[in-house]
Design brief:
With 309 residues, this protein is of the alpha/beta class. The chain has eleven helices and twelve strands. The chain has three domains: 83 residues, Winged helix-like DNA-binding domain superfamily/Winged helix DNA-binding domain (Arc Repressor Mutant, subunit A), CATH 1.10.10.10; 80 residues, D-Maltodextrin-Binding Protein, domain 2 (3-Layer(aba) Sandwich), CATH 3.40.190; 111 residues, D-Maltodextrin-Binding Protein, domain 2. The strands form two sheets. Strands 3, 4, 5, 6, 7, 8, 9, 10, 11 and 12 form a ten-stranded mixed beta sheet that branches. A two-stranded antiparallel ribbon has the order 1-2. A hairpin with a 6-residue loop joins strand 1 and strand 2. The radius of gyration is 32 Å and the shape is rod-shaped.
């Protein structure tokens, strides 16, 4: 027996003094209301209503039980309201600040279609880790090495003028002996100022003979892009970012760099929702390809998946 449903019928009938009117108020057929109340009476072992006359009156037992029945119905309604609010609770997620606002808005809309209510908080890689660690957000899209990544974004170099070669070799940025040509810098934006990206690039630059000042971290993405747009300097970025700034992009020949992202969350359900339900939408925000092309998702010089050899 559904005690809550039976008590709801009991309260409705007692309040209207009629099985017909009470059943209508409860949104159930009169026969269903009668069966539920009869089951409740059998459960308690006593009559709730005096049915000896045409009017429906509470028995002494019924009057004593009515306050408890009302409390039970009110509590059930309150639980239903709490459950709805819990389903609609916002999931605060720290996301890379490089994600374009239109794509973030599309992510929020896609999440709502899945009954997931996101509140996104753009931040840099170190700040996202701190927000997750201090539980200021429920989850975060954090920077991780490629091997541990759920999403991968190939990086390359972008310049204001077309780059003739299909890939960029760091040796070509080395100054000649005459040093009459200005050294072209590689600008690392804050999103890529993480050890697993910055350090391999710095070491490769040293091995290629670049001056230490030729690989430098910019204060912001805007500063880095402005420098690339106004000088021969090169911006380390994704293809999507290069297109957003109208820069010409080419992948690096060596080292092969990819941004790696994964989810950090305190609740397993949130982790699963972001990794599975919203996987493609997050990939779109990050500029990650689900099926990378040979020139964008695999190291330069490696065979493509469609190569018969």
């Amino acid at each position: 027996m559904d005690v809550v449903a039976a008590c709801r019928a009991f309260v409705a009938v007692s309040g209207h003094g009629s099985f017909t009117s009470g059943a209508a108020a409860a949104g159930i057929p009169q026969s269903v209301a009668s069966r539920r109340i009869a089951a409740l009476e059998e459960h308690f072992g006593a009559r709730l209503f005096d049915r000896s006359s045409r009017a429906v009156r509470l028995t002494p037992f019924g009057r004593d039980m009515l306050p408890s029945a009302r409390r039970l119905v009110d509590l059930a309604d309150a639980m239903a309201d709490d459950a709805e609010r819990a389903r609609l609770r916002p999931l605060r997620v720290a996301v890379p600040e490089i994600c374009p606002p239109p794509r973030l808005a599309a992510l929020v809309v896609a999440a709502r279609r899945q009954r997931i209510h996101l509140e996104v908080r753009p931040a840099g890689p170190q700040e996202r880790e701190r927000l997750c660690r201090t539980l200021e957000v429920g989850a975060g899209i954090v920077a991780v090495p490629e091997a541990a990544a759920t999403w991968r974004v190939p990086l390359g170099l972008a310049a204001r003028t077309p780059i003739p070669a299909p890939t960029v070799f760091l040796e070509t940025l080395r100054s000649g002996r005459a040093r009459t040509q200005a050294r072209r810098r590689i600008l690392i934006q804050p999103e890529d100022d993480v050890a697993h990206l910055r350090d391999p690039l710095t070491r490769a630059g040293q091995s290629a003979g670049l001056a230490p000042s030729q690989v430098t971290v910019a204060p912001s993405l805007v500063d880095a892009a402005a420098a690339a747009l106004g000088s021969p300097d090169l911006l380390l970025c994704s293809r999507q970012q290069a297109e957003d700034f109208a820069l010409h992009w080419r992948p690096l020949a060596d080292p092969w760099l990819l941004r790696g992202y994964d989810v950090a969350a305190g609740v397993r359900e949130d982790l699963d929702q972001l990794r599975s339900v919203l996987y493609a939408d997050i990939a779109h925000c990050l500029g990650a390809a689900d099926h990378p092309s040979p020139t964008e998702g695999s190291p330069p010089g490696s065979p493509s998946t469609g190569d018969p050899t």
